[in-house]
Amino acid sequence: MSSGETGNIENKHLVEAYKNVDYNSSSMQSFLGEVVTAIEKITLLSANTSLLDIGCGKGYFLKYLSERGLKNIRGLEPYDVLRDDNLFDNIIRGSYEENVIDDNSYDIVFTCHTLHHLPDSRPLFAIREMLRIARKYIVIVEINNTNIPMFFRSLLYLKGERNAYLYNLGRVRSMLKKVGANILLSDYLDSCYLTSDSLAYRTLARIGAPPYNISIADKQG
Who's near 110: CB < 8 A, 6+ residues apart? Predict the structure, then answer.
């Protein structure tokens, strides 16, 4: 399968997946709140905090932050269909590989559920790009393959989520260490925004490790 065919499959998968994600659902609100709580263990988020969300999709996290009063926030998203159906206005076309963001431009560079979509199974270039753009911190949220439902979901959607089945907290920590980042927080997130709020899914999401992990790092030296 060519890279173009793979990209088309992934594009269709993302569009379909986002149809099932409701910003106002209790699962999404719990997830976004837990992410903010984790970040604020390291740094206070205020109206003056600048943040770039790479691979922001429709802008769920950005909308959540804007409702908390943050003003200097922006998203990068490569897929036109997601930008066109956005929940937050300040989203521009871009990616890890292609962007016009200067060095040290944002206090925080954030990404959620993106690294495993990249063709490189261990995308150190993406983390280095986050460190380049960040003035202070980078924040990475990824899935845990040690969560049984999440692992099997990753296998089910292998064509649309490439390397998801490989990811867990240890893998993210390993990549951060490989690029010389200074890890400030490495922890699990109990909330999961995918699929639904059904009792069955919420029960399954507790089998094994929590479904998501979060890592915060800064530049050494």
Answer: 51, 52, 53, 54, 61, 138, 139, 141
